[in-house]
């Protein structure tokens, strides 16, 4: 398990270097890259700490800034709210 957590942290570091520094994942405009990345980061930020791992946004300023910005998009906000509700139900033992 430690090996996989180390690998995931390494991949997050790679993502940090690849993210555009001017707004969204691939540049100044919101694109499909942001749509694809948002659910992954949602699960990583919500579940990774439960495995005793370093917080995924810690020490990754571009990823942290991107996550803050992408969550302001109405479509992302709606999808993340639905995902949060489903995760809460799953954690409570619901369907």
Task: Give a description of the structure.
With 95 residues, the protein is mainly α. Helix content is 64%, strand content 0%. The chain has four helices and no strands. Helix 2 packs parallel to helix 4. It is flat, with a radius of gyration of 14 Å. It starts with a helix and ends with a helix. The mean pLDDT is 92.
Please supply descriptive tags for the structure shown above.
flat, mainly alpha, 95 residues
> What is the alpha-carbon Rg in Å?
14 Å
Arithmetic mean pLDDT: 92
Count of extended strands: 0
Specify the structural class: mainly alpha
- Helical region count? 4
User: How large a portion of the residues is in β-strands, by DSSP E?
Assistant: under 5%
Shape: flat
Share of residues in helices = 55-70%
Q: Terminal Cα separation, in Å?
A: 27 Å
Low-confidence stretches: none
The major beta sheet can be summarized as: none
Give helix and strand order, one letter per element, not per position: HHHH
Task: List the SSEs and their pairings.
Layout: H1 2-18, H2 32-47, H3 61-70, H4 74-91
Helix pairs in contact: 2-4
Structure described in brief:
With 95 residues, the chain is an all-alpha fold. The chain has helices spanning 2-18, 32-47, 61-70, 74-91. Helix 2 (32-47) packs parallel to helix 4.
């Amino acid at each position: 398990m430690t090996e996989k957590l180390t690998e995931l942290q390494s991949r997050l570091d790679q993502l940090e270097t690849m993210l555009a520094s001017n707004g969204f994942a691939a540049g100044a405009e919101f694109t499909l890259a942001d749509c694809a990345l948002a659910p992954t980061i949602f699960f990583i930020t919500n579940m990774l700490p439960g495995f005793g791992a370093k917080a995924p946004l810690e020490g990754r300023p571009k990823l942290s800034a991107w996550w803050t910005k992408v969550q302001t998009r109405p479509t992302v906000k709606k999808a993340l709210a639905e995902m949060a509700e489903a995760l809460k139900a799953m954690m409570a033992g619901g369907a």
